[in-house]
Amino acid sequence: MNILIFGPNGSGKGTQGAIVQKKFNVIHVESGGIFRQNIKGGTDLGKKAKAYIDRGDLVPDDITIPMILNRLREPDCRNGWLLDGFPRTPAQAEALDKALQAAGMKLDVVIEIRLAREIAKARIMGRRLCANDNNHPNHVAFAAIKPVEKDGKLVCRVCGGDLSARADDQDEAAINKRHDIYYDGKTGTMAGVNYFRKAGTGRFISVDGSKSIDEVSRELLGQL
């Protein structure tokens, strides 16, 4: 199964994506990781991308999309993939859609996790990172994954490790900037979501991200 997933920062997209990935035994493909892999590996596309990045410019779609297609062609993606972090604009959505079709890659499902902007911001600011393992979920606002108190301070609910907050998770200006891009229904990611909603490429699934992790996963897996 080939899946494209959308959701604003704070929506639980990473958590739900991991659940879907495990359920259907597909590979998680994250756009940022593709850039890093190509640049570190010194590929031709990586060298071209690095030149733009070093200048502070956006990498053009005619470099980004071939990178993504190359990744999706790798042997570990034969049983399916879950693409995360791209596209971010309606133009990228259309270009990716056409490129997948031209490459003979079927897009089976498009997932959207909906969440109001203010709730998304509050969730980001409540996240805490475990010093022992960043995959240990801790959040001050969710009872199911709330840190535990020990000796007057909050520690990881899984292993008791020290907790910290990412600096950018506490930077409202940075959060607002990321959300400005996502929630923009004209030129941003939401416009890309709406492209797939209307295009009919793959089955479109939209779930309410304001519910608990278990409720969202049940709804999502039920529709899948």
Can you describe this structure?
- With 224 residues, this protein is of the alpha/beta class.
- It has a domain at 2-116 and 184-223: Rossmann fold, CATH 3.40.50.
- The protein is built from nine helices and ten strands.
- The strands form three sheets. A five-stranded parallel sheet has the order 2-3-1-4-10, with helices on both faces. A three-stranded antiparallel sheet has the order 6-5-9. Strands 7-8 form a two-stranded antiparallel sheet.
- A hairpin with a 7-residue loop joins strand 5 and strand 6 (138-139).
- Helix 1 (13-24) crosses helix 9 (213-223), helix 3 (44-54) crosses helix 4 and helix 6 packs antiparallel against helix 7 (172-183).
Chain-averaged pLDDT: 94
Tell me the total number of β-strands. 10
Q: CA-to-CA gap between the ends? A: 10 Å
- Could you list the spans in which at least 5 consecutive residues all have pLDDT below 50? none
> Which CATH architecture of one domain is right?
3-Layer(aba) Sandwich
Helix content: 40-55%
Q: What percent of residues are in strands?
A: 15-25%
CATH class of one domain: Alpha Beta
Class from secondary-structure proportions: alpha/beta
Number of helices: 9
Element pattern in H and E: EHEHHHEHEHEEEEEHHEH
Radius of gyration: 18 Å
Give the overall silhouette. globular
